[in-house]
Amino acid sequence: MLTNRVQAANEGQITKYPFDIPETIFVADTHAQNYQLDLEYDNDGDVLVWYNLAETGDRGGDSQVNSNSINVYDSKHQDSRNNYYIYTKNNTTYTGLGHSTSSKSPMSDDEIKLFINTMVAAYRSSAAKPYINVLNTEAVNNGKVSNIYVDGDSAEIRFNIFDDTTNAKIKSSRKYNVTVKRDGEVIAGFPIVRNKDNREDPITVPVSFADVAATGSAEYIIELDSSYVDEFGKTINDEGLDDTRTVNVTIMPMFSLR
Q: How does residue 124 score in pLDDT terms, banded at 50, 70 and 90?
């Protein structure tokens, strides 16, 4: 049975990057597949469904969908086992795009954007490098450099780790090694190790006003390195750091009025 709409079942890179895709979009006429998905977790990782087929809608033109489609997909709302449209499992991505190429049922702009998102996610799914995310709302960010100003009180640098890898096996075994240096010297309490359960928890680096006041500024370097276990049980650690972030802490200049 044909339909011309799909609806998001989960939210993540496929729905958000590089295009922010609406929850429900029109697509070229398509239908459910002959095989059910096995949604149970196994040692190869989870099946993650991103979009399901939804009840048809009126998009104008001369779509081939009929009124029966409304009841079929509406009565099986978000049936990921049977009505999947896009899903991923580790570094494998399935998409139902391309069933119909008729001029009566063209691809919508949103469907084209969703396809681009899907290709970008598939490209990055094998083992995307994790990265550092500075959380200080007062930070002035310029690429990999952040600037924080202090005005007489001690402060802190707050950051966490993001990982866009969609390969569940890699992501579950990954270890994140974090080192923070101040003016070239590793500071107390580092390096530390994070894992899948706490990588997004904020990491705090205290900044003493006295450490900054001596020279007027201090340079903090955050270094991130990671390793994971591949399908053969081998620990993989790519050459070089995964990410480096510089945070410059500077005393706020004082101005006086005359």
A: low
